[in-house]
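Quick one:
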Amino acid sequence: MKVDIELYLLTVNVFSGIIVAGKNNTLRDNLVALLVFPASYQNRFEKAAIEWMASIETHKASGTTLVGNVVAGSERAAYSLNGDPCTDGQVTMANNTAHSTVLGLQKWQADATQVEQCSRFSGFYVYKSFSYGFYSNSPCSIVIENSKFVDNGMSIFPYIMKPDARGHAFKRKFLKITDSLFVGASGSYDCATDIMQSQDHPHIRLAGQGMSWAFKGDVGRVAIGWAMFASAGNLAPLMAFNNNMAPPALYGNIIVQGNLWFLAFCVPTFLHNVPSDKELMI
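Output:
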């Protein structure tokens, strides 16, 4: 049965606010304010908790229309999505916003409906995501288009896996970014209030494996993390999201084209390689 969820307000959700399954459902103009991480709720501190739930989850569904929704505050992710297939021209996502989260958009390899070779994400505005604006851990190629990423630790980082180069297998896979805006630190960004100290926020201390390297050393904020094309998975979220445990896969490409804007990055880190990756990627 098709379900339309429109004009709902959900606040202070201990776990996800909206979880969608099935086919051809619609989420339109909803506001989900504050996802509270259950493992740190009411003074809990459960170190074994590695779940990365999202305020809005559609990754177990197919054909979902996602338009005009806002996630305002999440102690984990804002959206957990499959994306649109790159093989057709249909766009089911537009004008969705995420802000004040640990992670903005996420896509995982274990998503039940993942059958496509390539996933496309369109029309998102992601700002003030403390770690990643967009993170994927999947065999799928990734296309990001017509989106804005502002004041994030690292705006985009995909981990694209398989096939295994150790058996001389290869497949052409890619990260493609078009017609998007990246801002390192906007005029409204306040270091005193927008940078969360882990000692003051238990949910940040419990998010250690999911933290990007953007705040470490002299790297600073990063627009696009150099896509990691790997022969196998990296055991995230049990292990670090940007951890590299396998040789590079063959024939991975990063494609950056169209109208792209990179503004207000204090150091030239609009494109940055993975510090833990010791293999040569050109």
